[in-house]
Design a protein that fits this description.
The structure holds two protein chains of two kinds.
Chain A (H helix, E strand, L loop, with lengths): L3 E4 L2 E4 L5 E7 L5 E7 L6 E8 L2 E4 L6 E3 L9 E3 L8 E8 L7 E3 L3 E5 L1
Parallel strand pairs in A: 2-11
Antiparallel strand pairs in A: 1-3, 3-8, 4-5, 4-9, 5-6, 7-8, 9-10, 9-11
Chain B lengths: L3 E4 L2 E5 L4 E7 L3 E9 L5 E7 L2 E5 L2 E6 L4 E6 L8 E9 L5 E3 L3 E6 L1
Parallel strand pairs in B: 2-11
Antiparallel strand pairs in B: 1-3, 3-8, 4-5, 4-9, 6-7, 7-8, 9-10, 9-11
Classes of the chains: A mainly beta, B mainly beta.
Chain lengths: 113, 109
């Protein structure tokens, strides 16, 4: 079955450590996205990529980095520069690159203490 | 002011009741999405609308472009409908998507 796989589901890190969240899709979608979800807030876009080896900052990119070396993979690194990293992170992909047909992964809940 | 507003924020109802969740937006859009987020966190796309009305099983979504308003209805609600329902809009000018804060629905047996 085609879909988006995020791993791990839960992740715990100490403050000051970088951590990488995995996102893999087998839908053959060109565009991939990372969102952050905080309690009581809508999803906010961190980074997106519409093609391999290219990506753009979203609304809240500070303290995060991404890479897109393969079409199927779009890992997100939460760096120690991110002031409030504890959140629920969702990866999504789209066929047309215009966010019109989004498919979501099941998310990774990151806790930094 | 948020560009996408949902109401109510929380809704508790008895099994079998007719449910309505509302979404208002203030930007020009190319499409509006209704999404469902289960307690585990994964999000599923329910509808994508640019005009009129769509129906899928017990779910109905409507949109009024002139009034910049959409509703999601659930008929004969069931406890398994308990989830967070999220309204999102695809913005005309830059293909951006803006998400509402979600409506938490709890259906009691």
């Amino acid at each position: 079955d085609g879909g988006i796989t995020q791993s791990p589901k839960y992740l715990f890190r100490k403050e000051g450590q970088n951590v990488t969240l995995s996102c893999e899709q087998n839908l053959n979608h060109d565009a991939m996205y990372w969102y952050r979800q905080d309690p009581g807030q809508g999803l906010r876009l961190i980074y997106y990529s519409q093609i391999v080896n290219d990506f753009q900052k979203g609304d809240i990119a500070e303290g995060y980095s991404v890479s897109r070396e393969k079409k199927e993979s779009f890992p997100l690194t939460v760096t120690s520069a991110q002031k409030n990293p504890t959140a629920f992170y969702l990866c999504a992909s789209s066929m047309y690159g215009g966010q019109l047909t989004l498919h979501f992964g099941n998310g990774t809940r990151l806790t930094v203490t | 002011k948020n560009e996408v507003e949902q109401s109510p924020q929380n809704l508790t109802a008895q099994e079998g009741e007719f449910i309505t969740i509302n979404c208002s937006y203030s930007v020009g859009i190319s499409a509006l999405h209704w999404l469902q987020q289960h307690p585990g966190g994964g999000i599923v796309s329910l509808f994508m609308l640019s005009s009129g009305k769509k129906k899928h099983g017990r779910l109905i979504a409507t949109i009024n472009i002139q009034e910049k308003h959409s509703s999601l209805h659930i008929t004969a609600s069931h406890p398994r409908d308990s989830a967070v329902y999220i309204c999102a809009v695809s913005v005309n000018r830059d293909d951006k998507i803006i998400f509402g804060k979600g409506t938490r629905l709890h259906i009691l047996p």
